[in-house]
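Could someone model glutamine with this protein?
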Amino acid sequence: MYEKTALQLKDLFVSGEISAVEIVNYFFKRINKLDRKLGAFLQLYPERTLSKAKELDEKRKKGVKLGALAGIPIALKDNIHIKGELTTCASKILSNYQALFDATSTKLLEEEDALILGKTNLDEFAMGGATEYSAFLKTHNPWKLSCTPGGSSGGSAACVSARLAPFSLGSDTGGSVRQPASYCGIVGYKPTYGRISRYGLVAFGSSLDQIGTFSYNTKDMALIASVLGQHCIHDATSLNVPKINILEHLKKNLEGVRVGIPYDFLTDLSDEMKQSFDESVQVIKDLGGEIVEVNLSVLKYAMATYYIIATAEASTNLARFDGVRYGNRDLHAKNLDELYDLTRENGFGTEVKRRIVLGTYVLSSGYSGSYYKKALGARGKILDAFNDTLKSCDLVIMPTAPTPAFETGSIQDPLSMYLMDLYTVHANLTGLPALSIPAGFAKNGNPIGLQMIAKHTQDHFLIGCAHAFEQARPENIQVPPFAKEAV
Ligand code: GLN
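Reply:
Sure, complex below.
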């Protein structure tokens, strides 16, 4: 059953060949066996999920209309709320925090009869690129357990890659869905900013954050993106655009599609990454795509711009965790100031504190002109450059990450870790839709991803093109040997 895509599992369920209870029991059994070595999950809901599965089986027996995701198991990154369940953000400060409401995505998934198995591990508050900064555990890459699954949505990526669920949700503020998808050999999608509601996603950088999806292939991606891409009245930045059935937009080839490549921004690629990228370019040409060389040299400013804006917004958003209203409180404090200080000192990990300090500094009076306001200006220039570029082409492609997955613990210097976001942060700064799709394997066997970026709100076109690429290279989608272990 683990090799079945989400759509195949749904068909088996809808046709009555298999019950929802059998599906969830099977996936829990797999998780119990394999996740000990993987560390993808922080919480599992066997009782809650089983009772939902029983209800769903009843619904099917009675002939009630079934939802678009009927019978499909899914895992959520642990920064997305499920009412009554923990949302820890992999932080000590929220280790006991119970969500008071459902995220819009949670609600939409359950309305469409998906079965939520549990919550997955992440870098604390989604800040990081290797899922090494979780306060609770490290997650491993199913392709090579000594390597990182990427981050910050590493638990969600590892879970899907190891076939512990055909779907999972992550969040992408600077690449945290696309980069782990590329490290784990699966597809990962970051929508146009505002396409999927942020209501019930714990905020990191509010102007950058988007919930994104992981799946084995683009057809499943089209299914879940269609369900989640809806206007939401609880999110002031939600786009009020019509719902689209993306499954109707999947392409067979790329004829007539102009594909831009910013070679001026890709000068530092290693030989291996360059070779892989060149092969992907050839696939696109063979599919009828027209290659256009574009100039995006302004992207050299994207990293600095991102790390100023993201930390500024994070320092503001994380001010609410003060021991008064949310999460844990330090009980040794003798007065209110000490309550704030001790709660935050003991509750946040090193990387989160680094971001808060950096963000507070760039916003401090006297410096905001040199840093924050300058970064906002640079953000505008990057957006202008992309909008201009996307007049001469329909898609932009580049590698998803500078390298394949690296050994866990091998990057100690925070700046080197930040550089792993080199090719992803611009899509968050611009709000453009972007995805990562498997593009082959490195010599050491770890997967490599190709990134595609499209025009604002053209998510259906983006996924449609990625589908054509995937169809031309089915061998890029493989089950890691680790996941083939019998259960
Ligand atoms: N790695 C990036 C960071 O640490 C991106 C994080 C994210 O997308 N949540 O900020």
